[in-house]
Amino acid sequence: MKVSFIGLGIMGSRMAANLLKKNKTLTVFNRSADPIQELVKQGAVAADSYRDAVKDAEVVFTMLPLPEVVETVAFSKVGFVPEMKKNAVWVDCSTVNPSFSWKSFLRAKKRGIRFMDAPVSGTKPNAENADLTFIVGAAKNDLETVKPLLEYMGEKIMHVGEPGKGTAFKMLVNSLLAQSMLALSENILLGEQLGFPRDFLLDTLPKMSVTAPFTQAKAEMIRKDDFEVQFPLEWMHKDLHLAALTAYEQGQPLPLANLAKELYAAAKQDGLGRKDFSAIYQFMKN
Predict the structure, then answer these.
(1) Mind listing the pLDDT tens digit for each residue in 192-217?
(2) Model-wide pTM > 0.90
(3) 170 catalytic, yes or no?
C-alpha cells in the first residue's frame, strides 16, 4: 500500500518512523527539512511539496498543529487534496475542532476522497513506542482499509462514530487532561502550605483512586523540575480554545474548561508555551 505522511513534528515524525518499520513505501513531506532527512535515512521517500507527496498515494496521513494549518496544507492553492487519487483515504490525525473535521469530510467527499478523523491520545513517548490510542470518526469500511496502518503506530483504536466524532471525543479527553493537571498542581501547592513534604504529596496524590493515572508521570516531572516537552503547553491552550469554540457552537456552558483555558493562556504568556503542559504547576507555583 502506498502511503504518505504530512506533518513531521514531535508526534508525526515518530508515527511516520513506526510506519516505516512495517511499510517501505512511505512518502513524507514537512514544512521544515530536518525531519524529512531523518526519515529518508530510515527509508522514506522525500517529496518536494504537499501535492507531490500525495501523488499515487492510497492513504494520506496528516498530523498538523492547527485547523488553519490543515486548511492551508489541504485546501489552499498549494494544497494536496486536488492531487489525491479518487477513492484514496485521507486520515487527519490533527487535533482540530469537530465542525472543521466535518467540513473537511464534505469537501473531500466532493472530490471522491474518503476522509476520516483519527486524532491520537498520547504524548511523545507513546508515539515513539507505537502505543498511541487512535480516536476515529469514520465510515466503518474506511476504517477497515487503514486499520493495519493504525496498528503499526498504536495499540488501541476507538471507533466513536461518523467523521467529526473522533475530534469531538478527543476534545473531551484533552479538556479532562488539562483540568486534571491543574487540579493536581493546585492540591500539591495547597498540601505544601499545610505542612506536607512535597515528595510525600508527589508520591501519594497521583496514586489515589480519585486521581487521573497519567499524573504519576507528570509528578516525576514536577519532582525533577524538568518540563521537557512531551505535549506542549501552547497546544493544550489551543485545544481548550477549540473546546470553547465548539461549546459556543452548541450553546453549551463550559465554565471550568474556560477557566482552565485562561490559566494556560497566562502560563503561555509567561513564557511556558514550549514546555510540557505539566509546567502549569510551575506557573501556579510562581
Answers:
(1) 999 999 999 999 999 999 999 999 99
(2) yes
(3) yes
